[in-house]
Amino acid sequence: MASPEAGIGQNQSFHNERSTIQFQGIANNCTFTTSLSQDSCLADLLITDPRSDKGRIEHTKGGLLEGAYEWILETAEFRRWRNDEQSRLLWIKGDAGKGKTMLLIGIINELEKPTKQTPDVAHLSYFLCQGTDAQLNNATAVLRGLIYLLIIRKDCLISYLQVEYNRLGRRLFEGDNAFHALSSILQNMLDDSRLTGAYFIVDALDECETGLPLLLDLISQTAVTARAKWIVSSRNRRDIDGQLTLVDAGVKLSLEVNAKLVSHAIGVYIDYNVSRLVSIQHDKAMQDQVRDQIRRKAGGTFLWVALVFKELHDVLSYDILNIVDEVPPDLYPFYDRMMTRIGKLRRKDPEFCRRILAAATFAYRPLHWLELRILADLQERVSHYTDFERIINLCGSFLTIRDDQVYLIHQSAKDYLMTNASTVIIPAGPGAIHYDIYLRSLHTLSQTLRRDIYNLQDPGPLIREKMPPDPDPLAPLRYSCLFWVDHLCDAIGQTSGPTKELTDDGAVWRFLDDHFLHWLESLSLLGRLSDGARSIRKILHELQSGPQLARFLKDAEKFVLSYGSIMDRAPLQTYGSALVFSPTMSEVRKGQWKEKLSFVNTVNGIKDGDICLQTLEGHSDLVSAVAFSPDGQTLASASDDRTVRLWDAATGTPRHTLEGHSDWVSDVAFSPDGQTLASASGDHTVRLWDATTGMPRHTLEGYGGSVSAVAFSPDGQTLASASGDHTVRLWDAATGTPRHTLEGHSGPVSAVAFSPDGQTLASASYDRTVWLWDAATGTPRHALEGHSGLVSAVAFSPDGQTLASASDDRTVRLWDAATGTPRHTLEGHSGSVSAVAFSPDGQTLASASDDYTVWLWDAATGMPRHALEGHSSSVSAVAFSPDGQTLASASGDRTVRLWDATTEDYTVRLWDAATGTPRHTLEGHSGSVSAEGHSGSVSAVAFSPDGQTLASASDDHTVWLWDAATGTPRHALEGHSSSVSAVAFSPDGQTLASASEDYTVRLWDAATGTPRHTLEGHSSSVSAVAFSPDGQTLASASDDYTVWLWDAATGTPQHTLEGHSDWVSAVAFSPDGQTLASASGDRTVRLWDATTGMPRQMFMTDYLTSLTFSEDGRYLRTNRGPHVQPYTAI
Questions:
Q1: Is the peptide bond before 471 cis (omega within 30 degrees of 0)?
Q2: Which of 114, 128, 347, 712 is such that its CA lies 20 to 30 A from the CA of 443?
Q3: Measured between alpha carbons, how far is 997 from 980 in angstroms, rounded to an integer?
Q4: C-beta separation of 592 from 579 below 8 A
Q5: Mind listing the pLDDT tens digit for each residue in 321-341?
Q6: pTM of the shown model
Q7: Angle of helix 50-60 relative to helix 139-153, nearest 10 degrees?
Q8: CA angle, 119 as apex, 114 and 123 as ends, to 5°?
Q9: 150-175 b/e (C-beta count within 10 Å ≥ 16 → b)
Q10: Helices (H), 257-368
């Protein structure tokens, strides 16, 4: 379900917010000075004014009659709720159409009258959920409405909201984390001593489609622990019943049980409506007949009665009884009758009605008539409002129109149209309707969006200083701008056809290529730029093909996250500072540079490869640790400010601040199921928290020193903690009961980590050692020595075979986790290394250091990949997200930074091999043929035999040839249709071979770049190629588990070598050309007769990514070191 947004005509987010924000220009930098007022805060909080919704509903339902609701005020249940301080929750439940909403409106009106029991009406807040409106059918909207009214009536409480709003602005109220943030704020408000009590009323809980369990949990908690009383209503539903019956202070009131009282109230409602029938106003006998017949058929359903009287409104007296006779009892038969009448309309009217009903039913919120006209594809046929209103009236009583907004009359009407009437309005299924809405939206946006759609002209002024033009060109487009992606994703989820939209030649790519910045500008003008990032993430989630589209979308998400604050305030800076200051190699800048403001010229010196996505600010002291939840949606950070903070990992929005420790917090860890968070502190305790609500669960005590680290076992049953008292302790993670105390270190223990299988525990210590322990018994296994300074961190690789340790000696060491044997020493940091973390795929190791940097290393070879710079103080912790896409780092500069862990810099670098001094960086400005440089990650390089030419292979489907001395590009070789994974020169340097994920090998003239042959035969990606020493044979390795031998001159296949049981990652010829070696993911190396292709020998090894023969051919050099193991004959 799409996120809620304000209706057209309110323009709240556009001009109601008052702020003092000044744009200082884009020549050198872009700075905003902001003072966000209380009016700004309330304007952004307000998604809908519940008072306005109440008035609209009353009007739509024909007004409120005291006789129709006052009966409930005299029930024992209501009187108990009102008069008994211990009775804090009243649940009114009943089936659809029983009048629950009007009952609650009556109760609201009653409570707004000051009495002895409720003398202060300023404490009354309410919200009316409506399932037909995505603005009003989610838990966050409920909280926003309740808090809004509470502040309006008790304005001193805004301070609790203002503090967080000053930090986050509108983001506080948006996204998946908004409910959690607002829950904490509401709890704080309720704890304020100036608030003597609060009364909350929520109607139609069953129509809260998103976040209902969270809302029910909040209601249950505050009804017991806070000074709050609740009245809620819903249909009879087991899930709601189950959660609300847990509240001891709760009372149920069933409308079915009180059927006689409800029937009497309906009788009052019928009497009132009969008296308003103009055609029989003076015919008492006729009135009695009508009254009696409707009462017999009503069945205790207010809605049915209301619909009948709506139909009778303009009927002449002689037809009234006939219609009452014709109308069937019960709602759904009544709806059947309306559909039958629509089908009997003349000419195009039935088709128009079906289109409108389909669009209104599957839209995520009520639509402005101009929006509905587009989604129903009627903009060319119905141009005037009066004509459109006539069609709405022809749709029976399913729809109503007020203030240009079209509403479904009731949730039951929507339920009926999606089920009983589906064969009429959606014969091809819901997916087809979603797809049609997507297509019509995208077509209209493509035809209408343009740069500076409001004709602002001046890029500097803030949008909130401007009123939208009249007519507003975005008025018909608002819904399409916000929800075209949602409808596409819903269509894909229900039918396979729309997946073609998400390809490199599909409609989505064409739209984004032409209108991406126009779309962002429009979202900014609508105050909904954050929806752009949400939509981009949704497309990426659905994407199954289209590498060009994927690259653009990943960069587009960074673009919005990086420059959103600028674009959100000054929309035309989308084409100014946002575009200018994006990296020169960014996909957005390359593709959209044509849209730059006219006075902007090329800006030099913008650094490419800056992969910092976000900086999270909020802690008031250094941040010591970070951890991602298992689902990747939450980030936890620990700080010397004695708090733990939970953040939305996608948006950076804060969720909860966990307070309770009395000294610095040194570490945090999530349980494997994500339900529990553990925190370690200098106050000698470990605390366990509910990771969803931030509520404390247990405090683990008994340490003789500060607790420096915590870690959960993979099964979540055991918690390990490291302490300054030289011990490691193991605890029962569910109960907090101690299990074992591990002793052996001679200094404070700084870190702990479980192996992936849970059998081994590693601990790091100030005594310069790492210990490995049996995690079940606490028995020590190995003591790893080698560091010359205290060891600050340890981490296991995902496969459990490698252990990494970080030390104050400025190094990271990699060890064999089974034997404790050292493998590599990683050197490069200029300060103490404080933390290490492996990526989920085990290929990358991240290290954090006091030198203010984070380094990324190849976990297999120990070679450095990137140095991430940006922190202004020591970096204390690093953590990868579960999907490996994001790296989080925590620093003494009081910030957490989120980095793109997958970004490559698209360059080839040449270094002086003797001194390590860089010579050249081979890079360019775009991915076009005429420009110089790769536009994708560089996967392989190879020098020609004479050393004068360098070849590079890339994910951008190309091979480039460079002058190795000067770094000047010579040729771009194009022809592959997918990523190029490997390149190799023939021994004479005249031929270049390239391997690709397009299942082919290509042979090129190395001097001119002219293609010679395309070698086809593999059934999967080709990962490696190698020439025989005489240049006559070419070997290729593939993910199809085979090695092929080819005639290098003609490209003719010679042999297919089969035997591996997994992908083949590398091949190499022996110096004499007699033997071919191949390495595979099956962890074997096989030796073959290079002439006949017959297998010779095989030996087991680790997974190898590269191998070559030694000069004498006696052993193999690999990325895991030399291999001279005894061969096994095949």
A1: yes
A2: 347
A3: 6
A4: yes
A5: 998 888 898 888 988 888 888
A6: 0.57
A7: 110
A8: 95
A9: bbbebeebbebbbebbeebbbbbbbb
A10: 259-275, 284-298, 302-312, 317-326, 331-343, 349-362
